């Protein structure tokens, strides 16, 4: 009997975005192990994380903990520090992250924001993932989206924009610009996690036909681990 060739077809790829709220749950307890538990429930191939504690001043690096527990590749996108504690975005992936870049989305005197732009190699099939967490002000979000859309200048690989966009008004300019660039996508509510009412977390892909299905991961653990529920999308080849 000959050797079986390994299955190197990654499709469909499962993508998720998850605002982990600094690993502080709806019960106000700091419990990174619950975030790890939710990620293990999801079993996504690639996850964008927001509000990630990145260590400093004797404070745990939650991203390192997640990487150790999951065995995924991980990159951070530092955005700001408070009292010596570092926070930012992150991308974790079961596939190698071959390159990553930080995009500064800071706006005036508001809390610094950013995006993490990562190239991922899915068994020879490249994906570009841009993970972000946008601001709370309308004008702030509009300027941040203008900056983000300027980086979508490649047709060399599928491009995925995902994260907490802090926008729920479907007729607002911010979402109109994104829809005009990516086409409309399903937007189920993800916030607050106990009784989700607002679709703050979004996943877009270009080309649009690669997006097969979008759903929210709502379980007893995910409803308490963070104030956001994870949003999951399935991408086909």
Strand content: 35-45%
- In total, the number of domains comes to 1
The CATH class label is: Alpha Beta
Please tell me the CATH architecture by its name. Answer: 4-Layer Sandwich
Q: Summarize the amount of helix as a percent range.
A: 10-25%
How would a textbook summarize the main sheet?
7 strands, mixed
Within the CATH hierarchy, at the fold level, what is the topology?
Deoxyribonuclease I, Chain A
Pfam families: Exo_endo_phos
Protein name: Endonuclease/exonuclease/phosphatase family protein
Domain Endonuclease/exonuclease/phosphatase: 16-228
Keywords: Endonuclease, Hydrolase, Nuclease
Description of the structure:
- The protein has helices at 32-42, 62-70, 138-149, 173-182, 220-225; strands at 13-19, 46-56, 59-61, 73-82, 85-93, 97-104, 114-122, 125-133, 159-164, 201-206, 211-216, 231-235.
- It is α+β, with helices and mostly antiparallel strands.
- It has a single domain (13-235), classed as Deoxyribonuclease I, Chain A (4-Layer Sandwich), CATH 3.60.10.10.
- The protein has five helices and twelve strands.
- The strands form two sheets. Strands 1, 2, 3, 4, 5, 11 and 12 form a seven-stranded mixed sheet that branches. It has a five-stranded mixed sheet with strand order 6-7-8-9-10, covered by helices on one side.
- Strand 7 and strand 8 form a beta hairpin.
- 20% of the residues lie in helices and 38% in strands.
- Helix 3 packs parallel to helix 4.
- It is globular, with a radius of gyration of 17 Å.
- Keywords: Endonuclease, Hydrolase, Nuclease.
- One of its GO terms (molecular function) is endonuclease activity.
- Residues 16-228 form the Endonuclease/exonuclease/phosphatase domain.
- InterPro entries: Endo/exonu/phosph_ase_sf, Endo/exonuclease/phosphatase, GPI-anchor_lipid_remodeler.
């Amino acid at each position: 009997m000959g050797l079986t060739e390994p299955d190197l077809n990654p499709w469909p790829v499962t993508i998720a975005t998850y605002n982990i709220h600094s690993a502080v749950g709806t019960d106000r307890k700091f419990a990174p192990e619950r975030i790890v538990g939710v990620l293990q429930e999801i079993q996504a191939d690639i996850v964008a994380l927001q509000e990630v504690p990145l260590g400093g001043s004797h404070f745990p690096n939650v991203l390192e903990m997640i990487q150790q527990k999951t065995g995924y590749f991980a990159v951070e996108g530092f955005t700001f520090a408070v009292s010596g504690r570092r926070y930012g975005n992150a991308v974790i992936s079961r596939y190698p992250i071959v390159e990553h870049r930080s995009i500064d989305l800071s706006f005036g005197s508001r809390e610094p924001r950013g995006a993490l732009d990562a190239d991922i190699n899915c068994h020879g099939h490249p994906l570009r993932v841009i993970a972000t967490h946008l601001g709370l002000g309308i004008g702030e979000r509009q300027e941040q989206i203008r900056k983000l859309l300027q980086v979508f200048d490649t047709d060399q690989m599928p491009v995925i924009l995902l994260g907490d966009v802090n926008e729920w008004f479907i007729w607002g300019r911010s979402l109109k610009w994104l829809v005009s660039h990516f086409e409309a996508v399903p937007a189920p509510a993800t916030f607050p996690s106990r009784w989700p009412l607002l679709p703050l977390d979004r996943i877009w892909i270009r080309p649009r036909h690669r997006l097969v299905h979008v759903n929210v991961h709502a379980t007893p653990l995910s409803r308490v681990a963070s104030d956001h529920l994870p949003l999951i999308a399935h991408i086909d080849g």
